[in-house]
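Quick start: read one record
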Amino acid sequence: MSLSTNLGSFLTPKNTYASIQVCNMICRPAITMSNKEIPEETRKYTASREFCTEALGLMNNLVFVSFIEYLGGQLSAKRETGKFLNKMDFKNIKNKTMSNLCDKDKKIKSAIFLSSFLGSAFSASILTPTLNNLILNKMMKNKEEKHENKLLETTNKVENIFIKNQETE
């Protein structure tokens, strides 16, 4: 196999989106933690939330989009050939370049690619934010309450200093 064949089979929308999520999982928390203008507790909370959001999105992408990709290829194969593909035929069609495929297989590969794109778009725009709101908000709520309590304590200390200064005058 040539390099273009290997890259061609890797550069699906699902894999491209997964690569972007991995970069975001690493870079976003690092950038957040490096901003010294934000209080340390806020940086820790924000960085951990960003990391968890991208990790949840990555898992969602790899599970959901893989299923949609497989489903789209199988439905296309059923329409084109009248039968479903076995796992080996599906993998071969998915990994071969378009120039090495017959017309029916080209249509199946196009359906796999299209379903990968649509699944990635649905995952990124609807499914991941919904799961993020349902799961991550509950997980991070306890951490957020602790952070708010610390901010409130800090604010109360500052207010007490002002009250003390007013009483002495």
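The radius of gyration is 25 Å.
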